[in-house]
Amino acid sequence: MKISSELKLTGDEFLGGYSCGLTMHNSATMSKFTLTEGSEEFEEGIAAYENGEGLLLIVNKAKDGDALRIKTTITNNSDKEVTMEMLTSFCLSEINADRVHRLQSFWSSEDSKTGEFVGMQLYLASTWQMEIICREDERLTVTGGIGDRDFGHWMKTLQIGETFEAPEAVIARGKSLYDVCDKLVKAQHPDISPVDSDMGIVFNEYCATWGDPTFEKIKKVADKIEGKGIKYLVIDSGWYIEPGAHWWDYLGDWDVNEKRFPGGLKPTCDYVRSKGMIPGLWFEMDAITSESKHFNDTKHILKRDGMPLIVGGRKFWDMEDKWVVSFLKKKVITLLKDSGFGYVKIDHNEPYGIGCDGAESLGEGLRRKIAATQRFFEKMKKEIPDLVIENCSAGGHRLEPSMMKLCSMASFSDAHETTAIPLIAANLHRVIRPEQSQIWAVLRAADSKERIEYSLAATFFGRMCLSGDIYDLTDEQWAVIDEGIAFYKEAADIIKNGKTIVHRVESTSYNNPKGQQLLIRKYENKRLAILHRFEDSKKWIPEFPKGCKILAEFGSGETDFSAKAWIYEINE
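^ thats the sequence. predicted structure below, dont judge the formating
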C-alpha cells in the first residue's frame, strides 16, 4: 500500500472515461506533480511533491501508537493565486481488498484471503468525503478529506505564499475489524479534564423533569442521590424559560429564569456541591429559536445566499462573529464560572447542511464556522481549566475525533429508553473511546428488576449516566442500582483502558432486536463480559477460559430483555 494525496484546481482538465461528476481524482492537476522528496510507502516519513509552477504538496506520516497520523499541506509559492476544488487528507492506494466496512466517521477494507484489514478515520466536523476507486488491476484506492466541490460545495483560494492544511487523518492496519478500530480509537488523544479522569458517574435530570427543572426539583434529586457514588448532577434544558413554556422555543437568550431558580443558579450549584457532587448545565449555545429576542435580528447569524439559514425552526449564531463570541462568553462562560458549575453539556440538534456564506464557497464557509465553534470550546477550557465538557449531538453530527478531542465525554444518542441502546453502545467501541462514550440508563418506577439490570448493563460499554424517576424508586429497585454502580466502578479500568476482543450480535434490527449480544473487553489479565438478551433469545453464558476466576457478577440474564455481566481474571 502507498500513501499520497490528491489535488484538483479550478480550470484543470478532469479525467475522462465518463468520470466527470463522479470523481475529481487523477485530474490534470495531479499529472503535473512529481515526488521530489521522501517515499509513498506505508511508513513514517514525508512525501513532498512539486508541480514545477510553485505549488508544494507535503504528506507527513507520523507514528501514533500502532497507527499512522497523516497531515497534508499545500503551499502556494507561485506568482498567482490558485483555487482548489479538492484537496484530500490522504490517498491510500494499491489496496488488495474484497470487502469494505463503512461507519460514518471511518471506512475500512478487508482482504479475506490474508485476513488483513486497513482502516481510515478523518478528524473533521464539517462536510467530509471518502471515495473508493477500483483500478484496472482490481486493487482499490481510498481517499478521504473535505467534501470536494462536486459533493461538498467546497472551494478554497490560496493566496501567494499561503499554506492550507487538510484535516488530519489516521490510518491503521490489523488482523480484524476490531483490531483496526482499536488502533484508530487509541490514536485519539482527547483533552479530558483532570477532574474527569476517574470515570465518574453522571445523573442528568432531563428524563426526570422533561425540560421543566426548578431549584426544588434539583434539590429533591440531589437529596435522593446523595452518597450513591454519583459525581455529576446536570441541569438540562429549560432553566431559562418561564414556567409553562417549552424549552425548545426559547433558545438563544440564555437568561436564567428566576421564577425557576430564585437568586440565579448559584444557590443551586452551592446546594449540589454541599451534597458532594459537581453541578452541570445544558446549552445549545449556537442555536436561536422562535421566541428568542434575537430570532429576527439577522445581523449575527449564519446565512446562505444572503438569507438566514433556518433548519427545523432554528437559526444559528455565526461563531466567527466577534460580537457573537463576546455575547456567548458572557452568557455561557461567565454564567458557568460565576455560578460555580464544573460541568457543561453542549448540545447541537441540527446540522447546517451543504454550507453557508462567509468564504469563497459554501463548503469553505461551513468549515470555517465549525472551526470557530471549536475555538469557542477551547476558550471555555482556557477560562475554566478543570471544566468537564460533554459533547451532545443527537442530530448535529459532532461525534467525530476533532470534536471529541475537545471534550471529556459525549452522549451519543437520544435512544435513552429504547431496547436498542446496548446495540448502539457496543457499536460505538469502533469509533470513540469508551471512556468518553456516555450511555444513559433511564430508570422508571414501573421497571422490573430485569429491565433495570438491562439498562444499567448497557452503561458498562462506556460512561454511566442515570436519569428517570429517581425519587419514585423502591428500596428493592435502589438495591439493584447500587449493585450496578458498584459493578461499574469495579469494571472502570477495563472499560477505560481495555480492548474489545469479542462482539457477537445476532439481531439485524435496532427497532425490534432479537436474539442476543455478547461483548468482551480485556485489560491486562482481566476481562469484562456483557450479555444482553433481546426478543426470542436463549440463555447464553460465555465460555470462560479454564481456570479463570470470577471476580464480580451483575444481573440475571434469565429472560428476554434481561442482562448479565461478569468481571473475571485469567492466568496468562
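The chain has three domains: 2-186, 200-288+330-351+388-495, 503-569.
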